[in-house]
What we know:
Elements: H1 7-80, H2 88-97, H3 102-109, H4 113-121, H5 128-138, H6 142-151
Helix pairs in contact: 3-4
Amino acid sequence: MQRHNPSMPNIASILKSEISRVARKEVRAEIETLKKASVAHRASIAELRRQVSALEKELRRVAKGATRSDAVKSLEDEEAGTKRRFSATRLAAHRSKHELSAASYGQLVGVSGQTIYHWEQGKARPRATQLESLAAVRSLGAREIAERLSTQ
C-alpha cells in the first residue's frame, strides 16, 4: 500500500504555476513584437492612403485638362471627316485576299513588313496618319496595287 505524500500536490501546483508564468512571459514578448509590427504597418498604410489621395487629385486635375483638349480634338476630327477604325483581322484578310507579303503591303502603306506583322498580331496599333494610308490601300483594286508595287 502506498502512502499519500502531502508534498506531491504542492510540487504539481508549483510546477503548473511556473509553466503558466513562463508561457505568459513568452506570449507577452510575442504580442509586443506583433504590436510593434502592427503600428509600423498602420503608419505605412496611412502614408500609402495619402499618396493615393494625392495621385487621385492629380489625376482628376489632369483629366479635367485632358477632357477639354479631347473635346477640341474630337471637334477637329468631325471637321476633318470620319474617324478611322482599325481591325487587325481585316488587315490580315485584305493582305491575304490580294496575296501580298507583309513587306509588299508595308510598301503600299509606307511602313515596314515587320510593322504590318505587329499590327496583324495586335502587338501595335497604327497611328492616325497610318490609318489614312491603310484606308487608301484598302480602296485600291488589284490592278492599282500591282501598278503601285511595280513603280516602287
